[in-house]
């Protein structure tokens, strides 16, 4: 189902359904459409699914970092007058969710992370391919998934456009450095918010041992695996992802 992007003040977002708010946080190269299956499923299960467009390429370079994105998220939650939210983040979105939960724990009822940065940043800290090399960028995009066919031409074109846009590339590299700088290993043991960790068993961007470390460091977490799955479980195995998350939310009475 296509969803309408609302524009209000400084915020652009999708909002579908009624009930407990689930705020979805996209990754660095991830569009809002990556969560279409999550949006359709949970908006019919008694949740209000909200996906804000994060200001990854629109803040000043000095503010292009995890901390500023977490503050932006808090400003959005306050603007929407929300409380007891469930945050769901993939990749950089998971990192922003973790950072926000650390600093604004009173707003967050539960946290869901999948393929999250925050402990290990091979995803963003590596070198970028020669910008004009479409085939190499296609290969890199395919490596994100267990099944390379999930990396559609539309996804590859979007990544190619990003790394060939100097403005976006500079901010992408700034975010990569910020993700490494904002490592959360020391923070996690003090974060008691209930956390659901759903991870692709074949993720080579944030490998399985990263999920295990998150689970070991977070005092109130549960870890679930999806087999034959890479870095974006909600795209590659949407039904399994939704069923695992829904079962966890029901078990926790969320």
Number of helices: 10
DSSP strand content? 15-25%
User: How much helical structure, as a percent, in the residues?
Assistant: 40-55%
Provide the succession of SSEs.
EEEHEHEHEHHHHEHEHH
User: What's the story with the biggest beta sheet?
Assistant: 8 strands, mixed
Second rung of CATH, namely the architecture: 3-Layer(aba) Sandwich
Write down the overall mean pLDDT: 91
Quaternary form: single chain
User: Which parts are unreliable, with pLDDT below 50 for 5 consecutive residues or more?
Assistant: none
Which value, in Å, is the CA radius of gyration? 17 Å
- Spatial strand order of the main sheet: 1-2-4-3-5-6-7-8
CATH topology: Rossmann fold
DSSP E strands, number: 8
CATH homology superfamily: Alpha/Beta hydrolase fold, catalytic domain
- Classified by CATH, the class is Alpha Beta
* Distance between the ends: 25 Å
Assign an overall shape: globular
Tell me the domain tally. Answer: 1
The helix/strand class is alpha/beta
């Amino acid at each position: 189902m296509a969803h309408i992007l609302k524009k209000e003040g400084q915020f652009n977002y999708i909002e579908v359904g009624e009930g407990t708010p689930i705020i979805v946080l996209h990754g660095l190269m991830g569009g809002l459409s990556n969560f279409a299956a999550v949006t359709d499923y949970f908006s019919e299960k008694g949740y209000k699914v909200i996906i804000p467009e994060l200001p990854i390429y629109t803040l000043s370079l000095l503010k292009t970092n995890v901390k500023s994105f977490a503050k932006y998220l808090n400003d959005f939650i306050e603007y929407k007058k929300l409380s007891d939210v469930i945050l769901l983040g993939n990749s950089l979105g998971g990192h922003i969710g973790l950072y926000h939960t650390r600093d604004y724990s009173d707003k967050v009822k539960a946290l869901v992370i999948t393929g999250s940065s925050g402990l290990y940043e091979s995803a963003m800290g590596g070198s970028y391919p020669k910008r004009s090399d479409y085939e190499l960028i296609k290969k890199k995009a395919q490596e994100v998934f267990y099944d390379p066919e999930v990396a559609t031409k539309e996804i590859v074109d979007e990544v190619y456009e990003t790394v060939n846009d100097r403005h976006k590339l500079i901010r992408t590299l700034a975010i990569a450095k910020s993700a490494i700088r904002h490592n959360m290993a020391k923070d996690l043991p003090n974060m008691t918010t209930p956390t659901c960790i759903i991870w692709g068993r074949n993720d080579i961007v944030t490998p399985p041992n990263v999920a295990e470390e998150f689970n070991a460091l977070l005092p109130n977490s549960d870890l679930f695996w999806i087999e034959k799955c890479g870095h974006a479980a909600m795209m590659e195995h949407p039904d399994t992802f939704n069923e695992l998350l829904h079962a966890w939310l029901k078990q926790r009475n969320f």
